[in-house]
Amino acid sequence: MSLKQVVVIDYGMGNLRSVAKAAEHVANSQTKILVTQNPQDVMDADAVIFPGQGAAKACMQALQNTGMIEPIKQAAKTKPFLGICMGLQVLMSHSEENNGIDCLDIIPGKVVRFDEQANPGLKIPHMGWNQIQQTQSHPLWHKIEDQTRFYFVHSYYIQPQLKTEVTGMTHYATDFASAVAQEQLFAIQAHPEKSAEAGLQLFKNFLNWNGA
Description:
Blueprint: E1 4-9, H1 16-26, E2 31-36, H2 39-44, E3 47-50, H3 56-65, H4 69-78, E4 81-84, H5 86-89, E5 92-95, E6 101-102, E7 107-113, E8 126-134, E9 148-154, E10 156-160, E11 166-172, E12 174-182, E13 185-188, H6 196-207
Parallel strand pairs: 1-2, 1-3, 3-4, 4-13, 5-7
Antiparallel strand pairs: 5-6, 7-10, 8-9, 8-11, 11-12, 12-13
Helix pairs in contact: 1-6
């Protein structure tokens, strides 16, 4: 059995250490986790993890600077691909953050801010443990019960155009899409690397997934 190479994309804006450590913790001996800034590594990988935190504009700029935009677009269409937090949001067409910024446009839809005016007293960012309702079955939900709590930190949320691509919903002042899937791509707003056993199970499911 050949060694499977899973890359964690490092473009200077992610909680990479804990993401890589969580993946390594559940990886089998045939799986190598590589944190990389090299676009070629992303092209050559068997599977890709795309974490991120911070602001959309800075994220897109960093992807541009590191030459990661095309490799990410290719990987998202051709191999198992896991987006986390900002690594989910910039997959969308456009974000309202930073006065509006065009994103990768892999998943049609937009990113909007939680509405404080409509919800006085709402704490932003949405931070802490919250449930994900699994709206579709998916290999990455394997052995994770519906309504399991995951750890979130975000001020913006996604609004995908296609409801068929939504695999998880969460409530915080409003019901929002917290997980999406598109063929061999799965992306989640929560931080699985901070989500204890459920998060580790999600990483394990991803490492065992062939994208089908």
